[in-house]
Design a protein that fits this description.
This protein is mainly alpha-helical. The chain has a domain at about 50-135: Cytochrome c-like domain (Cytochrome Bc1 Complex, Chain D, domain 2), CATH 1.10.760.10. Helices cover about 50% and strands about 0% of the residues. It contains five helices and no strands. It is globular. The N and C termini lie far apart (about 50 Å).
């Protein structure tokens, strides 16, 4: 068995290539979820009383872009999608998105503007509604 020692330059090139491979794999996994808007089914049935306030606030402030029951439209992505589950987009990400807007990063819908007139409490209600929709769709 012949052992080959890698020079410092060869090792550096190998490590960069391996790192690039890992980065590409991670990005591909993230984007594979983002390019399949049919990844989750929308929730059906009646909305429970404890999330109806959030449903009303979502309908008034978010549905024009994110769709009825958050299934997405031509203007905005579906929030009932694996990419928005709590381990990938925590509740605070929704708060920041409403307060500051979001630069496009998972989808090709353009940047999301900040949403005027919503309080943090309003967004909390919306988040509870969206999380209910996600659970109903089997996302988490």
């Amino acid at each position: 068995m012949r052992r080959t020692m890698l020079s410092g330059v060869q090792m550096n090139v190998w490590l960069r290539g391996a790192g690039l491979g890992v980065l590409v794999a991670v990005l591909a996994a993230c984007e594979s979820n983002a390019t399949n808007p049919d990844a989750a089914k929308p929730a059906g049935g009646a909305t429970p009383a404890d999330v109806q306030v959030g449903e009303a606030k979502f309908s008034a402030n978010c549905a024009a872009c994110h769709g009825v029951r958050a299934v997405g439209t031509k203007q905005g992505p579906p929030l009932v999608h694996k990419i928005y589950e709590p381990n990938h987009h925590a509740d605070v990400a929704f708060q920041r998105a409403a307060e500051n807007g979001v630069r496009a990063h998972h989808w090709e819908f353009g940047n999301m503007p900040k949403i005027e007139g919503l309080t943090a409490g309003d967004v909390d209600h919306i988040i509870r509604y969206v999380r209910w929709l996600q659970r109903e769709a089997g996302i988490y």
